[in-house]
Amino acid sequence: MNYKETLYFVAKCLTISVEDRNKEAIEKQLQSNNIDWDTVVKVSTAHYVFPALYCNLQRANFLHYLPEELVTYMEHITKLNRERNEQIIAQAKELNILLLANNITPIFLKGTGNLLAGIYDDIAERMVGDIDFIFSKEDYPKAIIILREFGYSEVTKYDYYFPYDKHYGRLQKENNIAAIEIHSEILGIEKYRKEFNYSVVKKDSQVINEVRVLSYANKLNLSIIANQINDYGFEYKTMALRNAYDVFLLSKKTNAKVSVNALDKLTNPLNCFLAACYEIFNKVDSLEYNNTKMSASYLSVFNNQFTNSKTTKRRHKRIKTYLFLKSRLGIIYKSLIYKEYRVWLFKRVTDKNWYKEKLVQLNFKK
Fold first, then answer.
1. What is the pTM of this model?
2. Are 27 and 62 contacting, i.e. CB atoms less than 8 angstroms apart?
């Protein structure tokens, strides 16, 4: 199995709990005994859907088609992830109680928000990094003070910190499983912020088990935004299965096309991701998208990347260089306007320890 075949196989496996057509197709593939399980493990792990793959195969009663040692390994990893997510949910609820007691209402985002909303049949399916939540402009600085007083401190210790305009630097607390990210904005790219921000998502946010989370439509949109905008997936034309799986599950709770069309400038990049989801999940009805010239062009590049690896690597390298230069020029520009950026930049370029860290990283890569 090549990379594309493996990616599409894993993607279809993620739908077999609710898509009978894909379930039949996957069972035929499994019966052929022609699956490269090493590659499946690598791809599903790289896309953070290994536990979700196991859970779907288990619910479909397909585990007997897999090598016994693989099933044992999958059970072990899924069990560990379930235990981690149980701790994350408990930590998130503790944070929610703390903040509500101080008259601050957090809206939980991304993976933790999805766990709290119960969109997964098994909480072990979702691999979660940080606990993300967003506040109003007024509550944002108050939340930082309260959480610091509660014992949270910087994950990375410096004498100075980057002046984030999207979220505060990651914080952690001793004996807690996850770091937290306190957001004032959802998007990293400023030109999109007016149409998807705290004020917008608060309007139709929902309370589930005393915890406030996004509406299902905005959950779906954010699942795409996290990849397409914040991680530059729209530029790279790549697929993140973890995000795509969330979109698939949420498309069963809300109309995906309507959700994406409700936006303005974001509609095209989000619709392109929806088009890619429709492709890799084998044309699932709930993932129907607007068939436009842009989505057709996007899918053409998306699919060509699988067969032209050298060209793709060169293109991705150019994009990476462009984004790096754009980011650095942006910091320089902001340092000319804003004092906090100017102070940070001066301290960074005069920090001997930072240069030492970079040298260590370069030597490690060699």
1. 0.88
2. yes
